[in-house]
Design goal:
Elements lengths: L8 H9 L5 E5 L14 E4 L9 H11 L2 E7 L14 H12 L6 E4 L1 H8 L4 E6 L9 E5 L5
Parallel strand pairs: 1-5, 2-5, 3-4
Antiparallel strand pairs: 1-6, 3-6
């Protein structure tokens, strides 16, 4: 029986094979997950109905199972109307989750097109499509090194 909070069989299988620097995308409900997979990536769809399952729930479960060394959001382009409003509220929720997990990891936005390119890379191993309704909620995690 697993002791961590992540019990999804396919997600556990993919994470069990993941190595240092592998990329995991927790995608919001607007992300084009089926057309942006990297060549080595699996897609797991958890989008049951609007808001179920959401990105913060998936993030907490992932953190219970693996070490991460970096967390990137998709940067908001300057010409997007949302750019003038500051960080989206969900980014603060992610920061709180990192803090609650005692991780000293900065949530770092990367440019929208760089984000897509990173997801399309060979390091991308998993996209978890959620039904998150918050805008700009996509979260790209880099697997860290397991400490003994």
């Amino acid at each position: 029986m697993l002791k961590h909070q992540l019990i999804h069989p396919k997600i556990n299988e993919v994470l069990g094979k993941a190595g240092h620097h592998a990329k995991i995308l927790i995608a919001d409900g607007n992300y084009p997950a089926s057309t942006t997979l990297g060549p080595n990536a699996e897609l797991v769809s958890l989008n049951l109905s609007p808001g179920l399952v959401n990105c913060t729930q998936v993030f907490e479960a992932i953190l219970s199972a693996i070490p991460i060394e970096a967390a990137n959001t998709m940067g908001i382009p300057a010409d997007d109307p949302y750019a003038q409003q500051g960080d989206p509220p969900i980014w603060n929720a992610y920061r709180q989750i990192l803090s609650d997990a005692n991780l000293n990891i900065e949530l770092t936005p990367i440019g929208k097109w760089e984000f897509y390119d990173t997801v399309a890379s060979r390091d991308h191993i998993l996209t978890i499509q959620t039904a998150e309704q918050a805008l700009w909620a996509n979260l790209l995690l880099s697997v860290g090194v397991r400490e003994s």
